[in-house]
Amino acid sequence: MPRSATKTEREPFSSAFGECCLDSPGGDMRAWNQADAYLLDTLAGRFAGASEVATVNDTFGALTSSLSHLGPSVYNDSAMFLHYLKRNWPAEKPLPVVVPIDALGESSAKVFLLRLPKNLHFFRYQLSLLAGLPECTVLVAGMQKHWPASFYQASEVFFARREVLPGVKKAKLMILDQPMAGAAVEREHHLQLDAFGLQLCNLPNVFAREQLDIGSRFFLQHFPDLGDCSEVLDLACGNGVLGIYALQKNPALRMHFVDESALAIASCKASLAASLGAVAHGRYYHNHILHDLQLPAMDAVLCNPPFHQQHVVSDTIAVDMIAHSHRCLKPGGSLYLIGNRHLPYYAALKQSFRHVMRISGDHKFSLYRASK
């Protein structure tokens, strides 16, 4: 059965910088893994005198909170990270400013602790920004099973020296220094969807960057009639393809876009402008689901939820999105949700909604309508 949409779990974390308990969504989504501890232990052992330290791609605040005494610079794309950093940061200290990934190339930090992202292009983009700094050392860590050879090869393009440390408890770590100018990394990738009359702009870290996500394609092919709607939300919008298509079909909609990735929100804005021009307007929110977000009551929610957070396959976020969608809908409003058939979304929908219907599907996907 789906887990509670409100439960969080506190998990003990120990490193060379001490012990603490960290909040996370729970379930399969742990507050830390061995890569976090490896980064911190290596910093304490090999770079003990470092004072200008930055964290990059921290997940739930394990790295950043452990370094609170150093006042680290923080570079992150994720609103989920910020949500849990607020919970895990020491209460007596002012919360650090979270800086967008695009600003990495302007950093004054000298040592960067970088959690290996899932997306190779996003990793190459980050390295290209760091390699533009006059001097820096980058400690990169991730779990060994999630670290293909292509990620090692990417580092050779941007740093002249690389040291790969022995594995520790299934985590790997490499140290990069002597940055050098590498090949330019494409920031924007444009998709022309002639079948739907859309043009999409995908920035680094946007899901399905090179082609339209097949779940979204199925959703577009079986798109619901929103003719009676005024306020519509595209939740986990990514590049905004669902909400933009809704606006194309119903220009009078007040369309709201929410995503936990700042680069996804920027992609959505650019995609809306490219597809519909200046006549269309959206309202954009970089946010972890709908936590602490004040929205008008919605007539409909469109959602193609993620079923993984980085490498962790989990329905935790989707279950929360379903519960949040129910709360933000007007009476009589509907959530339209697409998912792989094997995922337990029907049971999660029934926990929050009285009326749930599979309105379309094939051997791979199910498109549900859940009405409040």
Helix content: 25-40%
Please identify the oligomeric state: single chain
Write the H/E string, N to C. EEHEHEHEEHEHEEEEHEHEHEEEEHEHEE
The helix/strand class is alpha/beta
How far apart the termini lie comes to 21 Å
Number of helices: 10
Main pleated-sheet profile: 7 strands, mixed
Features:
single chain; 372 residues; globular; alpha/beta
Give a topology summary.
Blueprint: E1 9-15, E2 18-24, H1 34-46, E3 53-56, H2 62-66, E4 73-75, H3 79-88, E5 98-99, E6 111-115, H4 120-130, E7 137-143, H5 149-158, E8 159-168, E9 171-179, E10 189-193, E11 198-202, H6 214-221, E12 231-235, H7 241-249, E13 254-259, H8 262-276, E14 282-286, E15 298-303, E16 308-309, E17 312-313, H9 316-328, E18 329-340, H10 345-352, E19 355-361, E20 365-371
Parallel strand pairs: 3-4, 3-6, 4-5, 6-7, 12-13, 12-15, 13-14, 15-18
Antiparallel strand pairs: 1-2, 7-9, 8-9, 10-11, 16-17, 18-20, 19-20
Helix pairs in contact: 4-5, 7-8, 9-10
Describe this structure in words.
Helices cover 27% and strands 31% of the residues. The protein contains 10 helices and 20 strands. It has helices at 34-46, 62-66, 79-88, 120-130, 149-158, 214-221, 241-249, 262-276, 316-328, 345-352; strands spanning 9-15, 18-24, 53-56, 73-75, 98-99, 111-115, 137-143, 159-168, 171-179, 189-193, 198-202, 231-235, 254-259, 282-286, 298-303, 308-309, 312-313, 329-340, 355-361, 365-371. A 7-stranded mixed sheet has the order 5-4-3-6-7-9-8. Helix 3 (79-88) links the parallel strand 4 and strand 5. It is globular. The model has no long low-confidence stretch (mean pLDDT 93).
